[in-house]
Amino acid sequence: MFAVIIMAATAGAAPPGVEVIGPTKPEPHLSLPPGSGSLRVYSDSIKVAAARGGSAVEYPHSGYVLLSPDGKMLQHVENNNGTQKESPVPVVLAAGRYLVRARCVGYGELQVPVEIAAGKTTLVYLTAAGMPAALASGGGTIVRLPNGNAVGVGVASTH
What we know:
The structure is a single chain. The chain is mostly beta strands and about 160 residues long. The protein has a single domain (about 25-155), classed as Immunoglobulin-like (Sandwich), CATH 2.60.40. It has one helix at about 135; strands at about 25, 35-40, 45-50, 55-60, 65, 75, 90-95, 95-105, 110-115, 120-125, 140-145, 150-155. The strands form four sheets. The chain has a four-stranded mixed β-sheet with strand order 1-10-2-7, with no helix packed on it. Strands 6-5-8-9 form a four-stranded antiparallel β-sheet, with no helix packed on it. It is globular and about 50 Å long.
């Protein structure tokens, strides 16, 4: 059984039927405080205007907003370190449930519910390609947007 959270149908809301995206793997390269995990959001790319005389730069992942389950803003995450690096920025968070408001290819801005577990990383894929096939075939229920793109692994209900 999987927990399902459906948001109101407003701008930035989750598409109907999007399940909670949960942790998929341990995070070996981060030193995590007890009771915390990490989040990586593969959001839509963003093009940044060039400084005078320069050329525009495209970062692989746009920034996003992290919200509490009741919709209160907790933090804005730039999601890049000033380089055109492929990986999104890892964010260390206390274990629990959150909402991620980010740009998603084909949807614009939307919210997806996520769960952070101690010692693990939750991965969210909002890019054109969606979740890599290797992760999508690793077992568990895959969370999909209405267009069929896999965006993460569902959380097993513990209630």
